[in-house]
Write a structure and sequence with these properties.
This protein has about 140 residues and is an alpha+beta fold. Helices cover about 30% and strands about 35% of the residues. It has one domain (about 5-135): Nuclear Transport Factor 2, Chain: A. A hairpin with a 2-residue loop joins strand 4 (about 105-115) and strand 5 (about 120-130).
Amino acid sequence: MTQIDPSEAAKAVVRRNTIEVQGGGDFAVFDELFADDFVDHTPQPGVTADKAGVKILYTTLRQAFPDFHADIQWQSADGDLVTTYKIYRGTHRGEFLGIPATGRTMGFETVDAMRVVDGRIVAHWGVGNLYSLVHQLGARLTAG
């Protein structure tokens, strides 16, 4: 009997989230992949650091960028921790971060790490280049 490498299994879960949930908007898969006690250690502005907050973020992104998807550039795993470098792409068709729809296409880089336990995502840490995204949409950031 062939054993499945735990790192490869964890990478497959994260890829499913990237492709099917983020890129395809399949929230039934979201509920399957994210643990109820999920914690986002680097939540985005305006959302909570739990499963519900991530679902709101993904929904908001899909509404603002209906063709939202990620091109995975590389992925590595150390046991149950999967690190992914990807470029998100989409067309700005709805309000995002207070910026009205522009019709512009965008692409911004993200590096994130997700811990997968028993086939479910339990934790996330990430850095996204939101400055690049806001700049591509023609907005300016101001100091608070």
